[in-house]
């Protein structure tokens, strides 16, 4: 049984930490961005060092008090919001924002968990390097949370997920033990990889306090194109062609459907494609090239070859930085248009890349058994990651389909599972998908996860109810 | 307390598995390639399916019998060789060699743990894809062992270690539980990452039975060069220059010292560099380029720029496949020359890349306090990974320095540790470095490792004595 924070416990923490560690609890710490999760109460503590984090964890462990780690608060699955029936310590990393070191020769940045992604990107750029993790919330998401949820984003096709960008971690375990694993090494085979165990564990196995991150040379040139494809199958062909011609120079390959573009026209933001007619399907392509490769020429050559092969029917290569930004604004505005329309149910799924066309063919028929919907399917096709969102027909609202939501989710997740896909491609499990993980997860994996959780957090104080259901004890 | 295999237990296993699973135990299963480890006895079992592996593990778990997993037997740290005082089950994956699937669209191969690396490379090539893991023992090393030890090799600079090439694993846990994690997905955030926990655990947490592996487009062109550099500092400058100009197209950057070339001249194999004078330091560079980049021109341009900057004094670009093979033969023959000379002590270390010149400057002075030695320092500079091997002077032998060995190792490892390096960059811990891991490992990490080991293998039957010391119980 976990204990709520009591007055005595508050007093005890105050005696362990400097005054600056205590901040006013605002609503932001208790509600997630979409308002779907809200906590009852919490005791906000913002330590300034790994040693202070260790002291907090030791105290919480001794007092059997639960701890909810808090980064930028941008998570979409409720991982940062405690359940209503306890008052946990909300451990915010917001004061641990230092960029401890940037080494362009090692291609490594060592940063604290509270550093905001954008500031890490900027620090890398100042050292003539690239930190490629990039996503819509980069102005507020913090490194610790990005690693704890193994964030994805738009550059994963080339550079991988957050996991792939991390060389080492400094972590505090449930009992306050500090694991110093801030390695800068590219090769290090000395025992179990705790780093990867903590990444994606969503704060349920330990508190990430700092990370060493991989940096990359900045591409010599870059360019962006939009290409119209007949259907997802043609997009898949284009992806393979681009891969064989440009290899690791492709940094984004985003699929966009007509529905998303119609949504933009219907509710804004007011952004249009460069095409005279709204295409049924289009692809947004980004390349970052090496010395000797002209990025525009590379995209042009790709377009010519793809046209010859009948994969693309129209295409535009951005002619300026301004136009590149416009192209990307289309992609980045679709989530906002989605919010304005109001989805009945949205899904962050992935399937093996080769199955994407099958999935997009098959799902609408199954959903039609439930009712009439508009489907906005878009996302990181190069990674097999689709945001498959189901909307009401014009004139209907999200509320009209309240009773359909569970069934829609089941249909989308069942099909994903049949196609050996994932019910959470990049957002994680949090509290939202704990039951889905039980339904669709491999039983052997779940058993092993429970053993690991119980071993590293025997009292169950770390982010209880996230990833794994809280046992009744 | 673990039990040795008894006649009754043999009988029991024979009742659970088909006859074909039982093979004659030869010396190969009891001795590692360099003859430094030898087991007393063992009971060889070669299952043909994950289900059979599960049955074996369940039986061993019930009987508290230890299990040593066996792949290609090429490991260099004794991880595949049981200690003398027990008779374990030697669980060989040699019959699970199927390549279950190759999907060029997904860029995925699903292979069984017993598949030999070279056969996986060839299967990928037949599908016009590249599986980039490559190392000297690729003709006999098996995928399961390569993943269990997170093997490195010559292409890690570009493609990462074995860990980075794996999308998912099928694993059998100590109690026989099957974890089916053969994901083909590039993005999948559904719970703890057991895959990365098993990779590098050297069979001490579970038996890898199959893996889904990343494939890559084959480079459009490739080329190889040798460049003479003044010293390791100049090599570091060349590495950074190559990185900024060619980015992810560089697949190998190997540092070779004069000592290694002298060894080749002294004891063979009879292979010479293309340079009139034996250089003090040289670099072997491999590039695999994308469409539109001529690989020879890319290397030429790099050489010209590096010459202007004073980094390189001479260089040759291979003019044929035959010459490329000759260049690589120099690098690949150095370990054989080393064996013929007979090292006093050899070390597989890594340091942050920026520290390599310091390390190479500092170590000889410290070793000179012990005695007079020849040092052959070579390796994967692009990964920060040096094979730092200490040899007797001419006229002396390995045996003459028997009493110096421990001290040499201590000096090299201490310096590595001071420079925040790793005492095992790519070979793993096995049984050879268990004590070193205790000495140099982070105490917090070791504590967490022990908790995980005890949780997943509470009886301690999985590869006992590898990675972590066997507890007395």
Q: What report would you give on this structure?
A:
Chains A, B: One of its GO terms (molecular function) is catalytic activity. Chains A, B: Keywords: FAD, Flavoprotein. Chains A, B: Residues 37-218 form the FAD-binding PCMH-type domain. 2 copies of one chain form a homodimer. The first copy, chain A, is of the alpha+beta class and 473 residues long. Among the domains of chain A are: 99-217, Uridine Diphospho-n-acetylenolpyruvylglucosamine Reductase, domain 3 (2-Layer Sandwich), CATH 3.30.465; 221-418, Alpha-Beta Plaits (2-Layer Sandwich). Chain A has 14 helices and 17 strands. The first copy, chain A, has helices spanning 7-16, 50-63, 117-126, 143-148, 156-159, 194-198, 232-246, 258-267, 295-308, 321-341, 356-368, 405-418, 434-440, 443-456; strands at 43-45, 67-70, 89-92, 99-103, 108-112, 129-130, 166-172, 178-181, 207-214, 216-217, 221-229, 250-257, 281-289, 312-317, 345-350, 373-380, 385-392. In chain A, strands 4-5-9-7-8 form a 5-stranded antiparallel β-sheet. The longest helix of chain A has 21 residues, at 321-341. Chain A is globular and about 70 Å long. The relative contact order of chain A is 0.12. The model of chain A has no long low-confidence stretch (mean pLDDT 95). Chains A and B meet through strand 8, helix 6, strand 10, helix 7 and helix 9 of A and strand 8, helix 6, strand 10, helix 7 and helix 9 of B.
């Amino acid at each position: 049984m976990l204990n709520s924070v009591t007055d005595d416990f508050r007093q005890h923490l105050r005696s362990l930490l400097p005054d600056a560690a205590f901040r006013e609890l605002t609503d932001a710490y208790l509600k997630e961005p979409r308002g779907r999760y809200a906590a009852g109460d919490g005791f906000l503590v913002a330590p300034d060092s790994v040693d202070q984090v260790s002291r907090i964890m030791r105290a919480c462990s001794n007092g059997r008090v639960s701890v909810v780690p808090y980064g930028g608060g941008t998570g979409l699955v409720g991982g940062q919001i405690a359940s209503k029936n306890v008052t946990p310590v909300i451990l915010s990393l917001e004061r641990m924002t230092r960029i401890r070191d940037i080494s362009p020769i090692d291609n490594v940045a060592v940063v604290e968990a509270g550093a905001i992604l954008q500031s890490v990107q900027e620090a890398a750029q100042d050292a003539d390097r690239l930190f490629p993790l990039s996503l819509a919330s980069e102005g507020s998401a913090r490194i610790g949370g990005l690693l704890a949820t193994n964030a994805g984003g738009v550059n994963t096709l080339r550079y991988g997920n957050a996991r792939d960008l991390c060389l080492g971690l400094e972590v505090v375990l449930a009992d306050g033990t500090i694991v110093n694993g801030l390695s800068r090494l590219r090769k290090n085979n000395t025992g179990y990889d705790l780093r990867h165990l903590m990444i994606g564990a969503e704060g349920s196995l330990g508190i990430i306090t700092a990370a060493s991150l991989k940096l990359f040379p900045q591409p010599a040139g870059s360019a962006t194109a939009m290409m119209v494809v007949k259907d997802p199958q043609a997009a898949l062909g284009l992806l393979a062609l681009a891969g064989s011609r440009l290899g690791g120079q492709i940094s984004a390959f985003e699929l966009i459907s007509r529905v998303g573009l119609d949504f933009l026209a219907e509710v804004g933001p007011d952004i249009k494609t460069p095409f005279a007619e709204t295409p049924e399907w289009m692809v947004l392509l980004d390349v970052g090239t090496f010395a000797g490769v002209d990025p525009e020429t590379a995209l042009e050559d790709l377009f010519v070859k793809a046209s010859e092969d009948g994969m693309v029917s129209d295409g535009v290569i951005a002619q300026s930085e301004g136009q590149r930004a416009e192209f990307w604004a289309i992609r980045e505005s679709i989530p906002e248009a989605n919010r304005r329309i109001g989805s009945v149910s949205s899904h962050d799924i992935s399937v093996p890349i080769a199955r994407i066309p099958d999935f997009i063919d098959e799902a609408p028929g199954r959903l039609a058994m439930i009712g009439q919907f508009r489907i906005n399917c878009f996302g990181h096709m190069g990674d097999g990651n689709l945001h498959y969102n189901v909307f009401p027909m014009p004139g209907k609202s999200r509320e009209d389909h309240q009773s359909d939501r569970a069934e829609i989710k089941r249909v989308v997740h069942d099909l994903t599972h049949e196609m050996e896909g994932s019910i959470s491609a990049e957002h994680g499990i949090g509290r939202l998908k704990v039951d889905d993980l039980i339904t669709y997860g491999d039983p052997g994996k779940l058993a092993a996860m429970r053993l690991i959780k119980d071993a590293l957090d025997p009292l169950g104080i770390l982010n209880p109810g996230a990833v794994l259901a809280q046992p009744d004890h």
